[in-house]
Amino acid sequence: MLGSKLDIAVDRIVEQVMWIVYAQLGLISAAIPIIFIIRGGLVDTVRSFSLVWGETSFGMMRTKWGQRLVASNFMRSLYGAAKVVAFCTLALALGLQDLWAGTPREGWAEGVWVFAVICSWIATAICLIRGIPVLLEAPTLLRDLDDKVEQKTTQ
Predict the structure, then answer these.
(1) Mean pLDDT per segment of 10 residues, for the chain of length 155 residues?
(2) How far is it, in rounded angstroms, from Cα 75 to Cα 130?
(3) Helix or strand or coil: residue 98?
(4) Which element (helix H / strand E) includes 153?
(5) Domain count along the chain
(6) Domain range for 101
(7) Which of 18, 90, 92, 93 has its CA 20 to 30 A from that of 51?
(8) Residue among 84, 33, 63 nearest 141 (CA)
């Protein structure tokens, strides 16, 4: 349990720092880190209750579609790969901007940057798509938790 929570926390810290730095450098819109921070805060708050059920953050999903979007290896891998591609292409774009500034290759650097921005928005879309099931299932999950707490207090 501790490992699953720490894994999510470290991932969240790294991704938020990367998005914030790239936004500060002017490579992406500030909307991207804002979306990741808000989505992360909301989803991680709901996921924190999984410990009460003795489950991992991914194991708490109840619906099949929620499990597929949030917990499946395919979606987790796709999300991770999308972030890696976005971060790496943003770093490449930053380096090429300086390296190729004022040369005939300057247009190529801009093309890499446009591709990196598109990859960043794709990663943001996947982030939102994977967060929606957690938030939609939250009322049911928390109601179940309230019922369990009430049963224990009446015993």
Answers:
(1) 76 94 98 96 83 68 86 93 98 94 92 98 97 87 69 69
(2) 8
(3) helix
(4) helix 106-154
(5) 1
(6) 2-154
(7) 18
(8) 63
